[in-house]
């Protein structure tokens, strides 16, 4: 039985990794033209009446009908969902880059919520919560056996309300009781800094409405201070996606004007679209072109895109486009594989249905769905291996996921259970990776790539390479260190 680890982004976003939203706040465009199945509708009515008359206690009519709608939509695929008043409000907040919560990145470990990182200047950060802390109780309710989503909902709430977290911290014998006041958290979508003279680290944590504007401001500022930039690392690791215009704008910053960024195909006519590197596709509500004042050098500066299993949807649009045009070297591990479009159809002033309406395709027509983007250079998360990243849930692992137009090409592993136990044991000893830090192994490999230095390839690739070397006729001076997988010689046939 395969162990799967589910991780999410920021507390309060309420988004499964890889869920992108193409917002379209309009009334339903079409009504079903086929006659409704009367027999099944009668059965629904009969069941409703039975529950009202025979159930052990009274049930609210509206709750029954909302649950029926929710079940119908949820049965389609993992990303289609009915949004009630609360969920609809949270969805709109997350797209705008804000939410009410405590301000931590989390993952599930051993049945508890593990703090990956507190967000700077948030209530959790000020309360002294640290990376690696395990949250064992919320308001004294044990979390053991509770899903990650349920735990997150307990930490959400209204601004200026208190939530009490019980923490287990390595090195402390007694649990820590930490009261935290919920506040509105504004997510920083874009980070950028000079990590070495001439080399920029550009991090997109999630694609939101302000992303393109924020990226343009930060890059313009960096170029003003350091005009001789030799390379940019575009970091999309653990970026679960977001709004499509953000992905188009980020891609357009590095590609020629009018380049095809992504295309979609679905049942409706407006689902069959092609999106280009033009302001009308990424400028959003703001007039003008937010990329107009970017330095011309961005179109040609060497570029590496870092991805992992947490890079999904809008992240995969960007990685796929830059890879198709050979504009960037994609480095890391295979992405999530969420290549479907969700459109938000508003039902009332406070409710909506988020419905899967199309599939994404890269400029060369490659399907993303249930496959993802395969990196040009596979690099593990740490020097010791890929750690928990290799065990993460991907789109192809989700129940009811849409099939892809191409098969999942991940290699089949033997003795998987033993391998996963080994990885879990190793991962517990490792510190959470702080992206952009001096200890960021994958970032270091990206910088090595720019400088023409050896790149440490993924252990799986290295082991395959060593096995192949036994049957290869290889020049004595040839070295494969840093060579892309597709450039290696294939084993000689017998």
UniProtKB/TrEMBL annotation:
Location of the PDZ domain: 88-170
Keywords of the record: Hydrolase, Protease, Serine protease
Pfam families on file: CtpB_N-like, PDZ_2, Peptidase_S41
Bias (Basic and acidic residues): 483-494
Highest taxon above the source species: Bacteria
GO molecular function (one): serine-type peptidase activity
InterPro entries linked: ClpP/crotonase-like_dom_sf, CtpA/B_N, PDZ, PDZ_sf, Peptidase_S41A, Tail-specific_protease
Any single GO CC term annotated in Swiss-Prot or TrEMBL for this entry: outer membrane-bounded periplasmic space
GO biological process, one term: proteolysis
Parts of the chain that traverse the membrane: none
Region (Disordered): 469-494
Family per record: Belongs to the peptidase S41A family.
Protein name as catalogued: Carboxyl-terminal processing protease
């Amino acid at each position: 039985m395969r162990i799967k680890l589910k991780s999410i982004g920021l507390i309060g976003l309420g988004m499964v990794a890889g869920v992108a939203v193409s917002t379209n706040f309009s009334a339903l465009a079409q009504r079903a033209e086929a006659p409704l199945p009367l027999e099944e509708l009668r059965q629904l009515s009969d069941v409703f009446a039975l529950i009202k008359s025979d159930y052990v206690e009274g049930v609210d009519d509206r709750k029954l009908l909302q649950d029926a709608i929710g079940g119908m939509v949820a049965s389609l695929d993992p990303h289609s969902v009915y949004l009630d008043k609360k969920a609809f409000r949270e969805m709109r907040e997350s797209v705008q880059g804000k939410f009410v919560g405590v301000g931590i990145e989390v993952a599930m470990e051993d049945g508890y919520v593990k703090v990956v990182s507190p967000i700077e200047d948030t209530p959790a950060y000020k309360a002294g919560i640290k990376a690696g802390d395990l949250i064992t109780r919320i308001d004294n309710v044990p979390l053991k056996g509770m899903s990650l989503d349920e735990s997150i909902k307990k930490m959400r709430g209204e601004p200026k309300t208190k939530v009490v977290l019980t923490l287990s911290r390595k090195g402390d014998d007694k649990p820590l009781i930490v009261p935290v006041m919920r506040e509105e958290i504004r997510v920083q979508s874009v980070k950028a800094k000079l990590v070495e003279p001439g080399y920029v680290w550009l991090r997109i944590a999630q694609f939101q409405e302000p992303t393109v504007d924020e990226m343009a401001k930060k890059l313009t500022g960096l170029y003003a201070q350091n005009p001789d930039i030799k390379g940019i690392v575009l970091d999309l690791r653990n970026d679960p996606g977001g709004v499509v215009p953000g992905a188009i704008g980020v891609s357009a910053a590095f590609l020629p004007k009018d380049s095809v960024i992504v295309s979609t195909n679905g049942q409706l006519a407006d689902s069959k679209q092609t999106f280009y590197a033009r302001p009308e596709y990424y400028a959003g509500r703001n007039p003008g072109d937010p990329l107009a004042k970017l330095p011309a050098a961005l179109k040609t500066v060497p570029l590496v895109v870092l991805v992992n299993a947490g890079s999904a949807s809008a992240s995969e649009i960007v990685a796929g486009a830059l890879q198709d045009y050979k504009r960037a070297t994609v480095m890391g591990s295979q992405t999530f594989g969420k290549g479907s479009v969700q459109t938000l159809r508003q039902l009332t002033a406070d409710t909506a249905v988020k419905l899967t309406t199309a599939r994404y395709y890269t400029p060369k027509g490659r399907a993303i769905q249930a496959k993802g983007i395969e990196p040009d250079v596979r690099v593990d998360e740490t020097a010791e291996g890929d750690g928990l990243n290799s065990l993460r849930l991907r789109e192809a692992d989700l129940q009811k996921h849409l099939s892809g137009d191409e098969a999942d090409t991940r290699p089949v592993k033997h003795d998987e259970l033993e391998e996963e136990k080994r990885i879990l044991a190793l991962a517990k000893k490792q510190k959470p990776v702080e992206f952009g830090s001096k200890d960021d192994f994958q970032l270091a490999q990206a910088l090595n790539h720019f400088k023409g230095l050896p790149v440490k390839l993924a252990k799986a690739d290295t082991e395959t390479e060593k096995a192949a070397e036994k049957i290869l006729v290889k020049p004595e001076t040839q070295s494969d260190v840093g060579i892309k997988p597709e450039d290696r010689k294939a084993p000689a046939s017998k």
